[in-house]
Input
Amino acid sequence: MVNPRIIIFEGDEIVVSERIKIYIYSSKDFRLSKKFGRAGEGPKEFLLNPRSGVNSAIRIDVQGNQALVTSLGRISFFTKEGEFQKMIKVSPFLLRFKFLGERFAVWDRKDEDNRRYWTVSIYDTNLKKIKELFKFEGTAQVGKGLRHCNEIT
Output
């Protein structure tokens, strides 16, 4: 493993993601118990955003025995042991999913009135938006370049 992106400690396991691979280790003896993930368009494969270059990577969240993997335009459900359950296609602007009990917290992009915003919203299990929690204007706007702010403390 060269560049781990996300590390999750869940029960007796340590779940680590690296670009398109997921590694599951025992937290008792730190032995690798399962490795899965590869690039592709199949149901057990992950799509990466080619425009993101080296920053392109999957996102993972674990709750109980379920692992949720977000890649470009899809979320894939696995057991924590790496067994594939299902895949759902979603908007490529729904970027990060986190378990929230029986719902999901979702980080997404929203273009409105010629402005780009980032939002965090709550979605149900059918991926229907329940409520937008907050919205903020993005630092990069289409046709306007990158706006940089320095915070004074």
Notes: The longest strand covers residues 103-112. The chain has two domains: 1-91, 93-146. The chain is about 0% helix and 55% strand. The chain has a mean pLDDT of 81.
